[in-house]
Amino acid sequence: MSGLRKTRDPPKPDQVLPANAPVVAQGIEPQQSGRLLNLPSEPLHKLSLCTSQMSQERKMHMQRNPLSVNEAIGKYGRCLTEFEKTEILGYVVIWFVGPEAMKTQNYDGPNGYYRMVAHDHIAYRYEVLQVIGEGAFGQVLRCLDHKTTEIVAIKILRNMRTDQIDMTEVKILEALRKKEKDTSTSTVQMKDHFIFRQHLCITFEIMGSNLDNILNQQLRRGFPKKLIHHYARSMLKCLLVLHDEKIIHADLKPENILAIDKEHSDIKVADFGLSCFEDEQVYSYMGTLCYSAPELLIRHSYGTAIDMWSFGCVLAELHTGRSIFTGIDDLDQLSCIMEVLGMPPNDDVKKSEFWTAFFAHEWKLKTVVKPISRPLASILGNSDKDFLDFVRRCLTWDPKMRMTPQEAMQHKWIMEGHKTPEQPKDRTGQPSQDPGPSKSNLEDILNQQLRRGFPKKLIHHYARSMLKCLLVLHDEKIIHADLKPGSYTKEAMEQIRQIPVEMQASEPGRKVQAEQSQTGRSRDAAGSTAQRNPGTGTEITQGKTGTHADDTH
Fold this sequence. Notes:
The protein is of the alpha+beta class. The chain has three domains: 24-205, Phosphorylase Kinase, domain 1 (2-Layer Sandwich), CATH 3.30.200.20; 215-418, Transferase(Phosphotransferase), domain 1, CATH 1.10.510.10; 442-548, no CATH class. 31% of the residues lie in helices and 14% in strands. The strands form seven sheets. Strands 2, 6, 7, 8, 9, 10 and 11 form a seven-stranded antiparallel sheet that branches. It has a three-stranded antiparallel sheet with strand order 18-19-20, covered by helices on one side. A hairpin with a 6-residue loop joins β18 and β19. It is flat, with a radius of gyration of 29 Å. It starts with 23 loop residues before the first strand and ends in a 5-residue tail after the last strand.
């Protein structure tokens, strides 16, 4: 969730609760996969919480039709608190009352955060399952919608204890939902919104992990180039819509970019809690320090261009696995930017009162800046000049010179990467129906799968293929000398199963032929000409030019 850079201390309980008090969620950081709200001695029921799919057994126990208020009180009155017996009268239909929840009547914490109780209801419709995110402005819960039987995410904002609830985020989400009907906005879509116990609640489609968690799972090694390009196009679709609607996201970062599924096949931009329309700005500074544009750091006027700066920072992080600018405060962050981009060329920036105060008083005392001591090319470590130029045009001091989403969509790096590879042609000059087997090696395939590893059955299958190769090498007294994932292509792995190993000399020092006793000798390492891949279930057949296997992983 979004929030100001200043970290929030965990709220302290405003009273000492008895041992049998309801288990509530407050002041504890949720785990990446979501934090259960029950104590270990009080486990959740066996629900399918990881996906939006539910077991048939669970659906059978769900209420098929809503109850009237009187029916709900008559059936579950003993489970309701005195407050709920009055509150429920304001609802027309009742889907769920949380009959098994350990209820509390103290719904708000000292800082306005809603106290969550496992299996309790929200608005007599949703069942609380897990906390999946916390931030300065509220929490995000995984909930079961008893009306639709879907798993949804509900964002519950803090009770700011004011007479008027800020509906800016809802207005922005409504605008994006209307745009989604015409074109893909690559944003997490709002399903509904309502007020519950003085808290604004917004329901969303359930999504996968955010990109920051995925990077952590990969030990911050970064993503493959093709995946970065694919994600970049999706983010640009969102930024194009925001630019056209004059909406500032204001907190674009990996934590607010969510994968749409477990395979991380695409992403959507989330969390518009700090967003605003350009002509309705509320804060002079907002966002997360590492992704903040220079105009925010020096308290200058800002617009949608700050999102393009954040976009450039995100791309650099997806490539390297690390934040490109890692300042610990505004002054240090400006120093980090100057080490990469040099001194600000714009006189208007230097005339900023905030800049002048820092530069005149604190700068020389705290910081020794060496402009361009960390060139962008050395940070990215990328030989792709187009990608380097793309990131550089996002990261410019002057927001007027910064690339717009429209310009970014026309950039060579985006255009070239989106082109479909030319389809191979047969002897007649017509496109071939069989493009041939994949040439990817196992190292590339691991990268494409975000280094998540292979299924056990597939590892076993590959191990047998490698052993067949090693058997032949051992019999022929040949030393491979460079066995690694990059040495195995999918094509070679299947050829090992189908045809004799070709004894060919390789580059010096890589494969050494210790002794060749029988020149021309070969072995059949396949055993059959048509088999089924145990890892994928695809049929592998031997043709005139070798073997072919469908690439399903």
